[in-house]
Amino acid sequence: MAKAGGGAGGSGADTDAIHDNVAAEISAVTEKTNPVDADVALIEDSAASNAKKRLSWSNIKATLKTYFDTLYSALGHTHTESDISDLDHDDTDAIHDNVAAEISAVTEKTTPVDADVALIEDSAASNAKKRLSWSNIKATLKTYFDTLYMGISNFASTAEINTGTDTTKAINADKLAASIHGRKSVIIEVFAAGTSLATGDGKAYFPVPKDMDGMNLVDCYAGLKTPSSSGLPSIQIHNLTGTVDMLSTNITIDANELHSKDATTAKVIDTAHDDIAHGDLLRIDVDVAGTGADGLWIELIAGVP
Prior knowledge:
With about 300 residues, the chain is an alpha+beta fold. The chain has two domains: about 15-150, no CATH class; about 185-305, Jelly Rolls (Sandwich). It has helices spanning about 20-30, 55-70, 100-105, 135-145, 160-165, 175-180, and strands spanning about 40-45, 50-55, 105-110, 115-120, 130-135, 185-195, 200-205, 215-225, 235-240, 245, 245-250, 250, 270, 280-290, 295-305. The strands form four sheets. Strands 3-2-1-4-5 form a five-stranded mixed β-sheet. Strands 7, 9, 10, 12 and 14 form a five-stranded antiparallel β-sheet that branches. It has a three-stranded antiparallel β-sheet with strand order 6-15-8, with no helix packed on it.
């Protein structure tokens, strides 16, 4: 094995020949299965000309947490670390008693990068000494943690929540709020069937209920019992409590049509005045009645902002 150098990457002088046997020393010492924060591993720092450095278990965990935070959603998992005994050194081969001192002597690196490598024993290859890059450590751990945690990709999109057909994905609050399941709708009768439309403010009123408190008006429609033969019925929604019109373009129903959903000119909700609160009184204003139209219903849809 090439000389690793003394201390934090020295010249590897003959007076410090102990470092020539790092691989053999690693093979000889007792294996530890449950590292604790103060434990350190010997690595090559790819960002510092492969200088030998110490990497503590606490910094390995911190770096991995930063990485896995981009892949997984925290589930409140807790982990208990167990104390274990010191290394068991072989007095008949005193060189091995210095492994801990060698690891302690090199500079510690706190945040490994993908090109960094650690020296390991390959249990599947007769414990041959091999290099293991940080990128491969992450990839292997990701495969393992994918079996334990719910990754970001396991959450359903708003569209998937709407269809409700996926059996493998979870729902988070934000996507649920944006879906159809995060909305509430009401139908308001403005004119009964057989009653002709008439223009004017306050043709109907709607007090906002508690379960719509804090929502926004996100959609609205109008429907007729008998369509207008000419002229487009036009309806405004006014927040009487806030003294503001909630539409910057009125709901309209095309001539000879029963519903506004396919109107040539679509309504536009004023997003500066779309907020509603429990107890607000909404008013339905008819600005244009059309010709021969009767029966008018308004559909209001509220959603979480």
